[in-house]
Design goal:
Order of helices and strands of chain A: HHHHHHH
CATH superfamily of chain A: Cytochrome c oxidase, subunit III, four-helix bundle
CATH architecture of chain B: Up-down Bundle
Radius of gyration of chain B: 23 Å
Strand content of chain B: under 5%
CATH class of chain B: Mainly Alpha
CATH superfamily of chain B: Cytochrome c oxidase-like, subunit I domain
Distance between the termini of chain A: 62 Å
Strand content of chain A: under 5%
CATH architecture of chain A: Up-down Bundle
Number of strands of chain B: 0
Number of domains of chain A: 1
Order of helices and strands of chain B: HHHHHHHHHHHHHHHH
Bound molecules: copper (II) ion
Helix content of chain B: 55-70%
Oligomer: heterodimer
Largest sheet of chain B: none
Number of helices of chain A: 7
Helix content of chain A: over 70%
Number of strands of chain A: 0
Chain lengths: 222, 543
Amino acid sequence: MSDSSEALATHELRHHFENMEQQRGASSMGMWVFLITEIMFFGGMFMAYLAYRYEYFLAWQEGSQHMNFWIGTVNTAVLICSSLTMVLAVLAIQQGRRRLTSIMLAVTICFAIAFMVLKGMEYHEHWLAHEFPGPAFHFAGIDPRHVEMFFVLYFVMTGFHALHVLIGIGLVSTMLYMNERGHFSADYHNPIENTGLYWHFVDLIWIYLYPLLYLIGHHHVG
Amino acid sequence: MATASAITAEREHYLNADYGFRSWLLTTDHKRIALLYLITITFFFFVGGFFALLIRLELLTPQGDLVQADTYNKLFSMHGQVMIFFFLLPAVPAVLGNFLVPMMIGAKDLAFPRINLLSWYLFIIGGGLMLYTMLTGGVDTGWTFYVPLSTAYLGTHVVLAAVSIFIAGFSSILTGLNFIVTIHRMRAPGMTWGRMPLFLWSNYATSIIQVLGTPVLAITLALVGLERMFHLGVFNPQLGGDPLLFQHLFWFYSHPAVYIMILPGMGVVSEIIPCFSRKRVFGYEFVALASIGIAVLGFLVWAHHMFVAGISVYSAMVFSFFSYLVAVPSAIKVFNWTATMYKGKIYYSTPMLYAMGFIGLFTMGGMTGLFLASLGVDVHVTDTYFIVAHFHYIMVGGMVMAYLAGMHFWWPKITGRMYPESWGKLAAMTIFIGFNLTFFPQFILGWTGMPRRYHAYTPEFQVLNVLSTAGSTVLAVGYLLPMVYFLWSLRYGKEAGDNPWGAAGLEWKTASPPPTYNFEETPVVTWEAYNYDDLPKEVPVVG
Ligand SMILES: [Cu+2]
């Protein structure tokens, strides 16, 4: 059995690598470097958020009170659970348990879709409350112009994050499909690991977005 | 079976392994992708050069007679964007780097060949959009997209240009990612970090900047696009934003981008100087680490572009200090190259002429950079032709010279043919003279107060402007020459042989042009880099 899966693994060796070990190392390092560029990409937005939070503190506090605390919190829980199932998928394939891997990948996709649905409901709520920046934006409290900026950054940051969740759904689905076709084994499962890395990154970005947008400033309502 | 018939003329190599468009457009061979890039960036070089000539032509007289202000704004904006994003940034990494990085470490290909091809396609899409932008009226923000000018006031294709650069940026990121992983994971047995050619060290440092800096430019341009299209306030003060934040984010990438342009050029020069001095490079470790030092320090100097923009005096002092500091690793390199030549057996062949030109012109560009790092002097010359002259000494005098040096040095390896040496020397001299005639007067113009980015100027500046325009035509001729004789040499050039320069380095240990997988078998490295002491003292092919 291990013979056949090793043969399968060698079959996946691309011509320009010396051995599987080198290929594995290269591809996971490539993923890490890619994630570093992603951090820098989001870093620009975090920088803008911090600079403006410092400059327009009151407007920022005002804005974060208009976040839907419960949807945000539930979504945080949903994403953390999805990271857990992703880890379990990687663990399962490392042990060669294909069936379990597929189940875990499928559950991850379900969590991700749940996240997107909740996010959509939240956006819809903001839209109805005239909190969507642009000509229709309306805000009755203090400093509406900078509260609008808070919402600009909220939508840009969560929007880019949601885009990454969508890409993640695509990746995990591809892994599920490939796993069902028998591409992966205990000896060859690098793509699943890399997808896992990416998925944890998406989760991690949210772990920073959640307190910045929903929590700090919120408690002050009392 | 493919018996040992390597002697016959029918030897298979990467160029004749396969024919037809498909075999090129779907290739994953790093050497073929390098050639795809070569063709693309050569095209953009001449497009950008054409804009430059129109600019110089307009500036022949003090009045606006050839073009009016609006057109002139577009000319210098498109010149900058095309030259920076579609020629200088990819020039050495994507052409020479793509070709040489795997060969120099003894690998069969880059770590991710398909991503390499993808990055070329992204470049083509970005470039295509840039062409479309030009053909439908262009953009006039300058290459810098300053806000709120770019988001609230101009009626030109700002968003299109931003999208095109956004996409080309991802091509640059993917190249950097590929190089980092390749250099870490694909080195042949015995090729330790300390034995790597300096070209690899400087491309590695470049890749770090590409990977860390470019995403910040991407998100900045995305925010500019959103602000412009949907009127969302991010940077525009009328919408509550802060234009200084834009400048911080933009220069956080765009200063290090200068090092994306110059570091690979330094790598090229570090290969050529030892070869034509027949000596091991002086202070290898220092030159190698200076590349990393430049990459790191380069991230800490960005606000020197904002000394007159109203940033705090104290942060300006810090940025001024770091801007001086970044000159140290650059100077280390210059001293080490000169020390390498000292008491060497110097051959004045074409690549060496370019490399020596590089050292001189880069030093001029670097030294005038120190003027600009100084807070007081910078106020005097901000937005004058002094700045224009300074960065053209770095980018054209430095980078383009280095690029041409590298093209001549590795042309025999890439094509298997020699270019005509005497024509090469003539072109090198023409370019050197034309360059200095074009840009040296601009130092004086700027110092005496001629502002940049105007299509008209007061008559007292005319003499120097005429000199500069005259120089630019000489320069244009100089650039056309290699274009012609390189093409000529493809058919009529002498056969180069494996190692016409008697150079060290793994890429010279395989055939020219190399076979598809670079080496007949994976090389094992047992020697230090630049072991010219163990090599013949003569350059086999001397022109
Ligand atoms: Cu700078």
